[in-house]
Amino acid sequence: MKLSGGQKQRVAIARALINSPKLLLxxxxxxxxxxxxxxxxxxxxxxxxxxxxxxxxxxTHDQEEAINMSDRIVVMREGMLxxxxxxxxxxxxxxxxxxxxxxxxxxxxEGVVEEIGQEKIRVQIQGQRMExxxxxxxxxxxxxxxxxxxxxxxxxxxxxxxxxAVVTDKSFQGGQLHVALQLKTGEELVAxxxxxxxxxxxxxxxxxxxxxxxxEKIPMVTAYKLTDGSTTTRFPMGEALDTAQPVxxxxxxxxxxxxxxxxxxxxxxxxxxxxxYLEKAVGxxxxxxxxxxxxxxxxxxx
Length: 302
What we know:
23% of the residues lie in helices and 33% in strands. It is of the alpha+beta class. The longest helix is centred in the N-terminal third of the chain and has 18 residues, at 35-52.
């Protein structure tokens, strides 16, 4: 009997857990698995850790994996601790430019503080000005580095608070739509989206469609019911997210493996209906759909 890669990993973890250790060291345990199996094992490991109450020390070079699986993250650089914090602190509030760039590939923009407000600062960047979140201890005239996540960089044809740029390239890579931008200074930035369009662009990328294979029904959140009885179609933020009740609509699933699909007609009717439902929800045409273990195959849908 020959075990698959995922089965071997399960056996190895079971052997390590049989003695009920207080601390379990996991050094790149999922590195050799394909993407779909790796995501399944990530879910299993999180479930095991919660059930057994054992501390997992998880070593990985996959930044997305670290963000998704951890309660606390330690970012190291050349053997030194760069930052320790929760996934939210590491991703949304990095302490250094290295952490911002290493975890999530942020755009790093250098500028000079021109004006300081209570919550916002105005930064001059090569003759252009934009607002940013203020940090403690900042002074007017001080050089600063702004970190802007690729998914938070909005591309639009007009606006007051932003930088002028030219779109130099658009590509679909690893399940993301990437928009390359060049500032007046020649500096290059990248905006990216997972299944969401950039304002001013007409491409929408749909990823991980084959993760839904063999589902009987596909739940779709169409709105949120708030504690005051009202309903909103906007995603609730802050404390409202903890108390909001999602309003769910179910679409029929498909009972087959679509990882081999290479054109729109290869998809079952239920999958095509699901894509068209999403198009109505986002108000834009989905032009690319990725499938396959490494998101290596793209279905062009026009």
